[in-house]
């Protein structure tokens, strides 16, 4: 990493001292954060809290992509927006908030939707991707491009009273590599999307603010630790899952279950151990270089909208 | 409670919203017949799913758990004793007393 | 509850519709939130995210007490403040942020420290208390007053890479009542404070932003569910712990362990089942009406600072 | 690994920051002698604590776990098989093979 040996400025030291003194953090980890680039796909219920803590921690470049505008029904949970910014593009509204929280990072706005045509160009410019989106078609697109570009992915989702979180493709591993056990991609874990008639958006099914908020903050937590500790760097000696102390090759799917009628209990948080990369995975498995390419994605193959069985990706939350 | 004869206890968890289809309860310990009565074959996960639909699914929107053909709705993750069911033979996976099965509905909202 | 049968205004409906359509929420639960009063003790790393989601959810009256001013070293984790408000009282800074997120609640600022002299007067005006403070002396004071005034308490804390959360005294139960099993207070769970030389503040020991942020959002989640579902109301038929489906009489202590070198694993979230109210508890047990009174607290008995073995409560984070 | 003779396996978890005193590992399965060699009494939680200090505590700041008199530092919560140790007799509580002991450091920061 270039730049992990420079001195911190007084302003950086003032802002980041409380996290730098945490054991295993320190100046080098802080400089790794400052030298990193993180992309948030979605500036809604997940993206707002996730971006607050990633910006606060001092990640140097923060890209945010979302085409929506702020609406009053967003504000119970999208805490990076404000009543005074209703009608503004969410990306611009969130960056307004983040810039006042921490002016030091470079903020890069993308006020149009992520698409098969533009995904690779945008994702290629970042070290780590946070999936904060709201529809299956975009989730499969993001994961596929992350596999092809060797980017780790922190994926979260939430609806009504439940949330999920998983760290994918970390450490990033070239497509088709299967000589040992490697970390899974989104398709390894979720081979097929649910049928269109069982896909509910937060607009239709509702969402509790603290549930999606907790998943967003947890996403930020994973992003900060991955970048600070260099877990996103290709490992020269990947462990076998039996002795993988990092839970990366067989990551846990974290499930948060919020029960309106009870205090936290044994089912509030579940950590389910996932399988490693699958041989037959369409995106990262043995024959995947024949089935999935950046060229193909750009020209409409696979067809994500058809795969997910809906006419247009839902983007309103 | 004492187990019924010719049944075995199976621990079944529903997560990610699926619990709302099953009396709003994320954890069930059910008594599953040892044999599938339709063909007297040993109970497998496919039989468990049909047993759950018949005896425990208390919600009109059954399509969130099973297709009309009785197969599990795509997008639901199944873990059998902490292992992905794809590695265990999916619906063909045989069950034993005390096995733990977790059904998780994939979420997409944000 | 008065007022749970009125109509919602158009603006309320616009703002809260996405949470009102969640199963088991609905108009009545929303009106319970609107009619409720919540007190945040501390406007720092826990109070900021907790207040964002409680304000977003539409709780009608939000009191915040803290005597600190905003400093640059707060901003990596205290996401309700801003660079443009450095030097402002934290309470005023946070309310500025919250009012733009949701102008409908009534915000009540207290820009002085909570003390044995003023605690009862302030706490008595609220339905639910969130302990977002940073030192043991204040934590014992808050719990004792909550027991005496029959207020439920959502208590969280965090340092370095760990966080804890517990719902206490819920449903609220009069001091000294022990004919059945009842929920514990803070002293039931944490009888003695650690010695002064092992008490670390976030300023000295450091704190990761996403860790304290996650605990704050989780606190908001408990507050919203308690008020929306009426779990804070005295129960006419308290369950025995054996069949308590609410996890309130024997609440779980939730522990979050953030590991910089690993993705979430089986130890990331632990839910530890606590004992119910203890017979020998100084604050809520059998003989507690003789040992703990509001009069006593006001006149310096117990002496919280002496009990916790430090000269002055640490209030800088 | 096979258990050593005259010892029993005890599951010990350290949470709330205590793991940093114990090789940064929140979970240990230790082999605890069945008898306390100092007086040949059956192993109890007090003996477990001294055994942990002697064999597993790898950090100079021992005062975060034990006082100079060998007793556990106040502010540490102990759960024995999921029950508050105050209800189990604290340091006097006898241990059996397979028991699960959790030590949690109380936090106060915010
Ligand atoms: Zn894959
Ligand atoms: Zn008590």
Automatic annotation (TrEMBL), chains B, D:
Post-translational modification, as annotated: C-terminal thiocarboxylation occurs in 2 steps, it is first acyl-adenylated (-COAMP) via the hesA/moeB/thiF part of UBA4, then thiocarboxylated (-COSH) via the rhodanese domain of UBA4.
GO BP: protein urmylation; tRNA thio-modification; tRNA wobble uridine modification
Modified residues (1-thioglycine): 110
Cellular localization per UniProt: Cytoplasm
Cross-link Glycyl lysine isopeptide (Gly-Lys) (interchain with K-? in acceptor proteins) mapped to chain: 110
SUPFAM superfamilies: MoaD/ThiS (SSF54285)
Keyword hit for Phosphoprotein: no
A single cellular component GO annotation: cytosol
Keyword Acyltransferase: no
Main location group: cytoplasm
Coiled coil: none
Pathway of action: tRNA modification; 5-methoxycarbonylmethyl-2-thiouridine-tRNA biosynthesis
Pfam family, one: Urm1
Entry keywords, A to Z: Cytoplasm, Isopeptide bond, tRNA processing, Ubl conjugation pathway
Membership in a protein family: Belongs to the URM1 family.
General function of this protein: Acts as a sulfur carrier required for 2-thiolation of mcm(5)S(2)U at tRNA wobble positions of cytosolic tRNA(Lys), tRNA(Glu) and tRNA(Gln). Serves as sulfur donor in tRNA 2-thiolation reaction by being thiocarboxylated (-COSH) at its C-terminus by the MOCS3 homolog UBA4. The sulfur is then transferred to tRNA to form 2-thiolation of mcm(5)S(2)U. Prior mcm(5) tRNA modification by the elongator complex is required for 2-thiolation. Also acts as a ubiquitin-like protein (UBL) that is covalently conjugated via an isopeptide bond to lysine residues of target proteins such as AHP1.
HAMAP family named in the record: Urm1
Database matches in PANTHER family: RURM1 PROTEIN
Protein name (Swiss-Prot/TrEMBL): Ubiquitin-related modifier 1
Biological source species: Triangularia verruculosa
Gene: URM1
